[in-house]
Amino acid sequence: MTADAVLPESPDLLRADLVAKLRESGSLRSPVVAEAFARVPREKFAPEASLAAAYSVRDVVITKRDAAGRATSSVSAPWLQAEMIEAARLTSGARVLEVGSGGYNAALMAEIVGPEGSVVTVDIDPWVAERAGRFLAETGYSNVKVVLGDAEDAADEYGPYDAILITVGAWDCPWGRLLAPGGRMVVPLIFSTITRSMTFVREGDRFVGLDPTVCGFVAMQGAGTHPDQEAVLADGAVRLSIEDGPELQAAALGDALAGARTELWTKVTVGGGEPFDTLNLWLATVDDRFGMIWGDPDHDCDLIQLAVRWYCPVLITTDSFAYLTTREVHCSDPADVRHEFGVYGHGPRGAELAQQLHDHIQTWDRDRRQGPGPDFTLYPAEAVVPTPAVGRVFLKRHTQLVMAWRSHSPSPPAAHLAPAVPERHR
Ligand SMILES: C[S@@+](CC[C@H](N)C(=O)[O-])C[C@H]1O[C@@H](n2cnc3c(N)ncnc32)[C@H](O)[C@@H]1O
Predict the structure, then answer these.
(1) Tens digit of each residue's pLDDT (9 = 90 or more) over 45-69
(2) Is 76 a catalytic residue?
(3) How far apart are CA 23 and CA 25, in angstroms?
(4) pLDDT tens digits for 96-115?
(5) In the chain, domain spans
(6) CB of 118 sitting under 6 A from ligand 1
(7) Residue to mutate, 40, 167, 186, ligand 1, most ligand atoms under 8 Å from C-beta
(8) 209: closest CA among 220, 222, 200?
(9) What's domain 3-224's architecture?
């Protein structure tokens, strides 16, 4: 054994450790995918990162930013790459399309599909495409075909594909036409500011979305771009975003943020690490003023207290908003740390929005929290789609996404659902 092999930062040790952690967390489930992660030298595709950063299970390596400082390209986090590749159920000999390149993910897939299969990876950015091709050649994966172009149609000529993996935030999904019968399409689909990676499988002329997984990706460029409406407040420390609706007035919203707030507490609590991702889906179902509030981690800003680091659900009008916050609840068992959901409302309609968000949270808690979450189905844009009894249809350019909640028997309101008393705070 050489000295290198025992250094704590040896790539081989870090890679083995990564595989062990991904197996333990359940992100890696099949031996063939684990074997690919054990073989491909991730650090060679992220030379700008330290070895520790390149092999961090949950961290993305950002490789390019735009003039405003937003990431436009990255090597995605290992846990998400593992989840998406597992979801695609790649087999030896499969033909794969990857949208959004970097090289690493394509190399993993090339390992799995083997010499009988093929991997095409397409990127709109010449800098990314050039370096992905170079890294792939240097690591022995020159059989991956790197295509420079807009994925809206740049990879059509190489299809059909048995699997399609989209590794960039997609507001629409024009790739169903390229999927071979029985194929799988894994897409981080954006609707109403929410992103969920889903695995789409064909059923007749529609695609059923399986296993919606919370994730975040860099934004799509080119023909598939669909920016949300955004208001930047407090010198960039806070952003509000909403997909549709009346034009946001940044100055009025900024004044609202700096002014007095309404505070409501819901008596709905959540344990440490307990997921509550169906809350956003519920809010997007029942309120078309639903959007996201973002806190910039590089700004010290005490004007907001988000329930979750980075971003939280919010109801927004042109000049007012109300968002989700939390406070710690003291339990008799100090090991049982729980947080109560609350709502802070700002602006002329802040109190009204806060009350409505508060009520939505209680309804979700009572009727929807324990369920499986909604079903997702993707239809062509021209199809006549069923209107869900409880749900929403998101109209896109090429497709329509139907989000439908299953019927349920609502449980009786719990004793803790007493009407909240608003308080005014500075
Ligand atoms: C998260 S990175 C891809 C990560 C990569 N799959 C990996 O190995 O981890 C997303 C990439 O999508 C690319 N992209 C954005 N819009 C695109 C489009 N319309 N067509 C093709 N690529 C696009 C960006 O240039 C960026 O490099």
Answers:
(1) 999 999 999 999 999 999 999 998 8
(2) yes
(3) 5
(4) 999 999 999 999 999 999 99
(5) 3-224, 229-371+410-425
(6) no
(7) 167
(8) 200
(9) 3-Layer(aba) Sandwich (3.40)
